[in-house]
Predict the structure.
Amino acid sequence: MTKNNSKVQALYDHCNNTFTPSTSPSPQASQSICSLLDTLGPADVGLKVELSDDDLEHGNFGINQLDRAERRAQPITYLEVYKCHSSTMCIFCLPTSAVFPLHNHPEMTVFSKVLYGSVHVKAYDWVEPAQIQETKGPSSFPVRLAKLSADKVLTAPCEATVLYPKSGGNLHCLTAVTPCAVLDILSPPYREEPGRKYSYYHDYPYSTFSAGNRAFIETPDGKEEDYAWLAAIETPDDLNICDGKYAGPAIEL
């Protein structure tokens, strides 16, 4: 039997020898995985890149002017490369202006690599110990304090990134500035049982609910704009994700 020498197979083999369902990879192991991810391009996972001049210039208009109806019109495509007990490798293909809403990765380590295009990433980590308060009014709801970890645009080719259970931007939102594809390796995979299922959030500026409640940030390591209150929400109605077929080299599990 011929050995599979593809880059994606080598990445799987390395992850399979590194990940366990109950522990996060060491810093050395994380760096090794990122180094392998940095060798990957779209063709290595069966993707064809077709970016027009209009796509490449879209970022000049800024992500704040993206049309909400346009986001709903074109779905985000999900491609599963593999899934096993300790990790999942998948690819998200986002059309221009598509938004993957703010969501968490409970007790997970996630490696990400932008394969093509540009994507805006806004990410948070929870402030510890937890700072939770109930909003006022007839429709009160709990909000929890988080600190901004990233607010930037990543454009391929760029280095792989990694988030951890309590650092690195475990809660993030992705907005496609141009058509883009992001490969993720999640360990352990999402599960439906309590504590492992993902949740969606809405972020509110720090000042929204903080009047008279500043004592818990006596010596912040950032400015007020580096903090936000996050409220758990139902799955957004305009989130449109469809399954696609992975067309890259087959993985020998």
Remarks:
- Confidence is low (pLDDT under 50) at residues 58-66, 215-219.
- Residues 158 and 239 are 27 Å apart (CA to CA).
- The helical segments are 7-18, 27-37, 53-57, 68-73.
- The longest strand covers residues 142-155.
